[in-house]
Structures are given as C-alpha cells and as structure tokens.
Write a structure and sequence with these properties.
The protein is α/β, with parallel strands linked by helices and 375 residues long. Helix content is 33%, strand content 26%. Helix 2 (26-38) runs parallel beside helix 11 (358-374), helix 3 packs across helix 4 and helix 4 (81-102) crosses helix 11.
Length: 375
C-alpha cells in the first residue's frame, strides 16, 4: 500500500467513472472538457502521473504553428500531397479551436507570424522553395481548407530589419503566432475543474484493459477510456510511438527587443523567438536523432554547442547574450506524423503521437477522442 495515498484518495480511485483519461496535458484535459460539456452528469476522471504534465504541454517553446514551408514540402515528399496538406489543415483548425475556447488574452497569444529563415548555406534550398510558393499556397487553400495566401517571401527591407548575419531569404506564414504554454494549461485546467472534472496528479497507470485503469494502489472501473499521454503511450505501443526530446535555452535580458515573430530554420528543427525581453532558442534534434529519442529531460553538450555555438551568433551583430536557463520537453513521434486515433481495445481509445505539433493538434485531438468515447 502506498502510504502517501489516504483512504479518501483510494476511495475515489476505486469508484466507477463514466470516462477515464490517461494524461493531463492539452489532449487529455481537452477531451475531458468536451466530454463534460456534452454529458454534464458524467463522472470524468483525468489521471496524470506527474505533479504536472511531464511531456511538452508546459515545456514547449510556445509556438502556435502548423508547419513551415520547408517542413510542408518535406511532408509532401514522404506522405503525399493529400495526406500532408490535410494534416496541415487539421493543425490550423486545432489552433483556431484552441483560441476559440480560451481566448487570446488567456493564452497570451501573439499573432506575430511565423518566419522561416535561410542563411547563406541554406540559400539554394530557399530559392527552390520560393519557386514552389504558388503551388503550396494553392494546395493549402484547396486541400487544407486554409483561407487566403499563407506564405509569402520577405522583401529586402523586412530582411534588413531582422539584422541576422548572413541571412539570405525569409518566407513568412502570416497565420502563425506564439502563446504562453503555462497559461494555456492553467486556462484548460481551470475550465475542467469548474465543470466538476476530477484531475488526479501523481497517479501513474500501469495497466489498461477494457473497463479498467489500474496502478500500484488502485483499480478504477471506467465505462470508456482514452489514452492521451502522447509519448508516454509508448508503454502500450512500443512499435508505433517514440519519445523525442526538445531542448530549449533562454537568454539573459536583451539590451534591445528581439524582432517580432516566431522563427523556424532547417525544416522547423531549429526555432527561436523573443519573449519577456529575452531570447528563447531551441531544437537541434536533427543532429543526433537517435540520442534525442529519449524520455530524459536533461540538456546535452552536443545540442548546446550546436545551438549556442553555431545558431545563436547568427542572430546578433554584436556579442550574443548569455543563455542562463535551459530545459527540455518530451514529444511523441512515430513512423508517420499522423496522430494515432482509434479504438485499441473495446472501449479503450487513443489520441496520441502528436508529432511535435501538440499545441496545434492537442485540442482537436481531445475533441476527436471525446467523440469516439461518446460513440
């Protein structure tokens, strides 16, 4: 018996729930929200193994993005046009749903746009992408259902204002932005608690079967179950889901404001933006992909050297700032960028494998999971 759980806690974890959800991040809490709003009298229980979400929900860089142009073109090559653009549309719709539910003020959302940058060594790739701008924009409208023109080339004066070293090209996505991950989660948790949803932190699920969620000291009977813990669902789907570490650094206060925008580089593997008068810089997973397939949230010397030694100096004409804080989050990836939705066992559903796009996909994934559970 776990001495840290009281009789009252155990009683609640062994009493029937209409809906049981594994994972208290964006997807899990969103699913709970949609379930409770549809069936107000239901008992909805969310189980989170950490004191707070341990994946990427509150450990991301806060990019409200649905794909840089180089990432979309790469996805078309690997997935095909219809699948790649449809997924981009789902991400865009997910961001719209997120903003509709919470409001931009609660999210600290900034409609600052997403900018993909191409330095001197990237110029050839950038020129090739510029030649595909018209096709990409047309497909985003026709296949993804995203209105208007998404991507455009930055002009000379816009590039000059960025003041990055050896910057050759820039391509803007005017529909992207930034938000505050902790405030997003705070708003989501607050809405869930106000509806009467039960959020249980520090409860790890070891066993899932039709109608039952179980751990060391509890056995929670459930009418319907949703697995919504993204990378941590690898426990049950080892061949379909892998963890991917995302390392992030934050600078000391800057002497001058960083240019507005959320910036992407190298198919989105590198990313940076200004926040609270500092620079946030992250990524680098592509230089050691096997080493970054881990649940560890430690930072590594190799990624630090790449980001701070190579990428950071390009962003400042003078002495770059010192990086004073670092962390890492865990994303869920797999052989495909498509989320894993569907029924695993009778009455046990999945909404996992967000492919590094949890902010964009999490709300809609939770909605999809709730719809499955409601039949």
């Amino acid at each position: 018996m776990n001495p840290n759980l009281s009789w009252w806690e155990r009683e609640g974890l062994n009493r029937h729930a209409d809906f049981g959800i594994v994972g208290g991040g964006i997807t899990g809490l969103s699913a709970a929200y949609f379930l409770k709003t549809r069936v107000p009298t239901s008992r909805v229980v969310v189980l989170e193994k950490g004191a707070r979400p341990e994946g990427a929900t509150v450990r991301s860089a806060g990019f409200a993005c649905f794909g840089s142009i180089s990432e979309l073109v790469s996805d078309v090559r690997s997935m095909g046009e219809t699948e790649a653009y449809t997924l981009a549309g789902e991400r865009f719709k997910g961001l719209s749903l997120l903003r509709e539910i919470h409001g931009d003020e609660a999210l600290e959302f900034q409609a600052c746009g997403g900018i993909e940058v191409f330095f001197k060594e990237d110029k050839e790739n950038g020129v090739e992408l510029l030649a595909q701008l018209e096709t990409v924009n047309r497909n985003l409208k026709d296949i993804s259902g995203i209105p208007g023109t998404v991507f455009r080339e930055m002009n000379t004066s816009e590039l000059s204002r960025l003041n990055f070293k050896q910057l050759e090209l820039g391509i803007i996505n005017g529909l992207e932005g930034a938000l505050h991950p902790q405030k997003l989660w705070n708003s989501l948790l607050g809405k869930c608690l106000a509806l009467g949803i039960e959020y249980r932190a520090g409860i790890e699920v070891h066993h899932i079967d039709s109608g039952i969620l179980a751990g060391n000291d509890f056995s929670l009977p459930c009418g319907q179950i949703l697995i919504a813990n993204n990378a941590f669902a690898q426990r049950w789907f080892p061949d379909e889901i892998k963890p991917a570490r995302a390392q992030v650094w934050m600078s000391e206060p800057l002497s001058h404001p960083f240019p507005p925008g959320t910036f992407h580089h190298h198919e989105g593997f590198n990313y940076f933006r200004g926040h609270a008068g500092r620079l946030l810089l992250g990524g680098g997973r592509h230089i050691h992909p096997k080493a970054e397939t881990t649940f560890s949230t430690e930072n590594t010397e190799e990624i630090e050297q790449y980001l701070i030694g190579d990428i950071l100096p390009r962003l400042f004409n003078g002495q770059p700032p010192k990086m004073v804080l670092s962390w890492a989050g865990t994303m869920g990836i797999g052989n495909t960028k498509q989320p894993k939705y569907g029924e695993w066992k009778p009455g046990v559903w999945t909404a996992v494998r967000m492919g590094g796009m949890g902010i964009a996909l999490g709300t809609k994934a939770g909605q999809q999971g709730a719809l499955h559970m409601l039949g």
